[in-house]
Specification:
Radius of gyration: 18 Å
Number of helices: 16
Strand order of the largest sheet: 1-2
Number of domains: 1
CATH superfamily: Farnesyl Diphosphate Synthase
Order of helices and strands: HHHHEEHHHHHHHHHHHH
Strand content: under 5%
Structural class: mainly alpha
Shape: globular
């Protein structure tokens, strides 16, 4: 959605701030390991695209917001992989943080990344203090409870899990932060962008459920078949494979339709379609037929 160089530099600046004299060396190394190299960086790239659509391309404030959203996402992956949740041995085709280091360090890495996300925007918005409260609130809502990724993860600990609520919080919260945060960082009204984040977030989780059922560990970069193995709520168990694919397609269409009028609206709609193809490529969908 945006060239990755500026985003990667913003992440490098944030992570480097943890590598100063006095930081425990294994913690500093594990923080870097959790962030680099990254995945698709879809959430921060979406944030930057929204900021550009709101009239502020190449904005340092948007870059800081986008980097903080990615730090929160990386924290959620570290915690999600822990033995008490997925007990995943791999992430992004290499050992997960608790396997590469240990469980204690992984727990602290997740905590440190959450705090670092807020430190990062606090530093960046010194020259724009009027925009900072909205950004902090958007990130806090996305990260915590009752409507953030912490709450979404907690639904896995309940006896019964409402699937729509689970998807909305576990994955959707950070997508909402990306669209809302992009608008806020540009000084624009975030309200018209919320629906886009909600629909993309749910679509992403549904796609993840389908990929978990159909993909291989090599394709996913993490263990496959975890939803079934752990008895975890899934769009595939709710709708069946064909139904889950149809539901995903409806969410993508709704996301594209929700994009408000702006100079980059058509470009954003094209990007939504391209992201849908990346999430569920044709060769994967053929397995669902």
């Amino acid at each position: 959605m945006e060239p990755l160089s500026s985003l990667e530099q913003a992440l490098e600046t944030a992570v480097s701030s943890c590598e100063t004299l006095g930081c425990p060396p294994r913690l500093a190394a594990a923080i870097r390991y959790a962030v680099f190299p990254g995945g698709a960086r879809i959430r921060p790239r979406l944030c930057l695209a929204i900021a550009a659509g709101c009239g502020e391309p190449h904005s340092p404030l948007a870059e800081a917001t986008a980097a903080s959203i990615e730090l929160l996402h990386c924290a959620s992956l570290v915690h999600d992989d822990l033995p008490c949740f997925d007990d995943a041995e791999t992430r992004r085709n290499r050992p997960s943080v608790h396997r590469a280091f240990d469980e204690r360090i992984a727990l602290l890495v997740g905590d440190a990344l959450i705090v670092l996300a807020f430190q990062n925007v606090a530093r960046a918005f010194v020259e724009a203090p009027d925009r900072l409260p909205g950004i902090v609130l958007a990130l806090a809502r996305a990260a915590g409870a009752p409507v953030g990724i912490v709450a979404g993860q907690a639904w896995e600990c309940e006896v019964a899990t409402p699937l729509e609520e689970y998807r909305r919080l576990k994955t959707g919260a950070l997508f909402v932060a990306a669209t809302v945060g992009g608008a806020l960082s540009a000084g624009s009204d975030p309200a018209p962008w919320r629906v886009l984040g909600e629909r993309l977030g749910e679509a992403y989780q549904v796609a993840d459920d389908i990929r978990d059922a159909l993909g291989t560990e090599e394709e996913l970069g993490k263990p496959a078949g975890k939803d079934e193995a752990l008895g975890r709520p899934s769009a595939v168990t709710q709708f069946g494979l064909a139904g889950a694919v149809k539901y995903f397609e409806g969410l993508i269409a709704g996301a594209a339709a929700s994009i408000p009028p702006c100079p980059g609206a058509e470009f954003l709609r094209e990007l939504v379609d391209l992201e849908a193809q990346r999430l569920l490529p044709e060769q994967l969908l053929r397995r669902a037929a």
